[in-house]
C-alpha cells in the first residue's frame, strides 16, 4: 500500500496506481491480486487501516489518564488526523474515492472502524445500544473534522478547536437528557425508551466493527 501513496495524488486509487505499485515491488498484478482481489480498492481500505494502526501506536505515547473524557476523545481524533497529515492529498483523493456510489459502503465501514478503534483504545465497555450510538456519533465527528482539516492551511489549531466544538456538541446530548429527566413525566418517558433500547446488544467479539460487518478474509 505504501508504494502506492506516491501515485495516488496524481492518479487516485486507480488501476494505474495499483499496477505501478506492483511494478515497484517487482510483483505481477495477477500475483498481487491474491492479496488484493479488488485491486486499488483494497489498497484504499488498507490506507485507512494503516492510519488506524499508526493512531493506536501514537496514542500509546500519550498520557490520556490526566485528561477529561471529552479531551481524550478529541485528542484521539486529532492524532488520527495527524498521522496522515503528510498525505493530505491522498486523504482528499480517498474521500472522493469512497464517495463514489460503488464504494460508499466501504467508506462508511472504514469510518466506523476508526471510531470503533478509538472507543476501544479509550476503554469503552458499553454492551447495549450505547455501543452503536457512541460509534455513530464519533463517526460523524471524525468525518466532519477531516473535511475541516483539509481546508485548514494553518498550524492545525483551528482544526483542534473545531474537533473540541464537535465533541462538546455530542456531549450536550447527555446534558439534554438530564434536563429532560427533570421535567414532569420526563423520567417515565426516558425509562420507557431505555427499556426498549436496552434490548439492543453490541455485536459479539467475533464480528466487532461495522454493523453487518465481515472481515476482508470473509469477503474473499
What does this structure look like?
The protein has 220 residues and is mainly alpha-helical. It is 65% helix and 0% strand. The chain contains 11 helices and no strands. The chain has helices at 8-11, 15-24, 29-32, 40-59, 69-82, 88-98, 104-121, 129-150, 157-181, 186-197, 216-219. The longest helix is centred in the last third of the chain and has 25 residues, at 157-181. The protein is globular and about 70 Å long.
Topology:
Blueprint lengths: L7 H4 L3 H10 L4 H4 L7 H20 L9 H14 L5 H11 L5 H18 L7 H22 L6 H25 L4 H12 L18 H4 L1
Helix pairs in contact: 4-5, 4-7, 5-9, 7-8, 8-9
Q: Considering DSSP H and I runs of 4 or more, what fraction of the residues is helical?
A: 55-70%
Distance between the termini: 18 Å
* Structural class label: mainly alpha
SSE sequence, one letter per element:
HHHHHHHHHHH
Number of strands: 0
> Shape from CA axes?
globular
Amount of beta strand: under 5%
Quick structural gist:
With 220 residues, this protein is mainly alpha-helical.
Give me some keywords for this one.
11 helices; disordered C terminus; globular; mainly alpha; 220 residues
Amino acid at each position: 500500500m505504501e508504494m502506492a501513496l506516491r501515485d495516488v495524488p496524481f492518479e487516485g486509487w486507480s488501476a494505474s496506481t495499483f499496477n505501478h505499485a506492483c511494478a515497484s515491488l517487482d510483483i505481477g498484478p495477477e500475483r498481487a491480486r491474491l492479496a488484493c482481489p479488488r485491486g486499488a480498492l483494497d489498497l484504499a481500505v488498507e490506507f485507512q487501516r494503516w492510519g488506524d494502526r499508526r493512531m493506536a501506536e501514537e496514542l500509546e505515547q500519550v498520557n490520556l489518564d490526566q485528561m477529561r473524557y471529552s479531551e481524550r476523545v478529541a485528542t484521539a481524533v486529532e492524532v488520527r488526523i495527524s498521522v496522515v497529515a503528510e498525505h493530505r492529498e491522498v486523504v482528499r483523493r480517498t474521500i472522493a474515492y469512497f464517495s463514489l456510489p460503488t464504494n460508499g459502503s466501504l467508506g462508511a465501514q472504514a469510518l466506523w472502524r476508526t471510531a470503533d478503534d478509538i472507543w476501544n483504545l479509550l476503554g469503552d465497555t458499553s454492551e447495549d445500544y450505547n455501543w452503536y450510538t457512541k460509534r455513530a456519533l464519533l463517526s460523524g465527528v471524525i468525518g466532519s473534522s477531516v473535511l475541516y482539516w483539509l481546508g485548514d492551511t494553518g498550524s492545525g489549531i483551528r482544526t483542534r478547536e473545531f474537533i473540541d466544538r464537535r465533541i462538546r456538541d455530542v456531549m450536550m446530548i447527555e446534558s439534554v437528557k438530564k434536563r429532560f429527566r427533570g421535567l414532569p413525566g420526563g423520567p417515565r418517558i426516558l425509562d420507557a425508551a431505555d427499556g426498549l433500547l436496552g434490548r439492543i446488544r453490541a455485536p459479539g467479539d467475533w464480528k466487532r466493527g461495522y454493523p453487518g460487518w465481515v472481515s476482508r478474509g470473509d469477503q474473499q
